[in-house]
Write a structure and sequence with these properties.
Strand 2 and strand 3 form a beta hairpin. The model has no long low-confidence stretch (mean pLDDT 82). It is elongated, with a radius of gyration of 24 Å. The protein has a domain at 2-93. The protein has helices spanning 2-47, 56-90, 94-111, 113-127; strands at 136-139, 142-149, 153-157, 163-167, 174-176. Helix 1 runs antiparallel to helix 2 (56-90). It has four helices and five strands; from the N terminus they run ααααβββββ. Strands 4-3-2-1-5 form a five-stranded antiparallel β-sheet.
């Protein structure tokens, strides 16, 4: 029993000082992320200019795509900052970690050219509204329904049910088969 009491006597002050702060950081991160999701959704639904050529469904798909991309990106940023605050609260110096990350980033920068190309291409695809989640598109012979768009890649599902993950930097030509209108051409042979 004295070992347990000694353990509690050593841990209790730390928990009441640092543990409560760590719990508060996690709760604050969760609440900020929830607030950001609601805020981004309201802002995007207000600032997207209505296009009289597009249907309400097409506008809704574009808004949903932008909302998803911004909320995921900001969510990652919020949790990364919360993690750094928790590490600092635990007693790990984050200054050297950030410096090492900068040096590692420089080293990986040469190898990350393709990643940067994918991110920049993805930004332009999203901002130019080339396609949205729910559209049917073709990329250089790969056709399918757009199931997901991130800043780095697009996920397509073709008619056979095969999922294709296409990095945005690899896309040279986009054919959107369902933007503004769609039709079916049938060739029927008659004798």
């Amino acid at each position: 029993m004295p070992l347990f009491q000694k353990f509690v006597q050593n841990i209790a002050p730390w928990f009441f000082d640092h543990g409560i702060k760590i719990v508060a950081i996690v709760i604050a991160g969760y609440l900020i992320r929830k607030f950001i999701v609601v805020f981004i959704e309201k802002i995007i639904r207000k600032i997207i200019v209505s296009n009289h050529f597009l249907t309400k469904e097409a506008e809704r798909k574009r808004e949903d795509t932008l909302i998803r991309i911004f909320t995921v990106s900001l969510g990652i940023l919020i949790w990364l900052l919360a993690l750094l605050m928790i590490l600092q609260e635990v007693g790990i110096a984050i200054g050297p970690l950030l410096a090492a990350a900068g040096i590692a980033g420089l080293a990986f920068g040469f190898g990350g050219q393709y990643l940067i190309r994918d991110l920049i291409s993805g930004l332009f695809i999203i901002m130019e509204n080339q396609y949205r989640i729910g559209d049917v598109v073709c990329f250089d012979g790969t056709c399918g329904l757009v199931e997901d768009i991130s800043m780095r890649m697009t996920t397509l599902r073709d008619l056979d049910g095969i999922v294709h993950h296409v990095p945005h930097g690899e896309i040279k030509k986009v054919s959107n088969l369902s933007k503004q209108f769609a039709r079916v051409n049938l060739n029927i042979g008659l004798s």
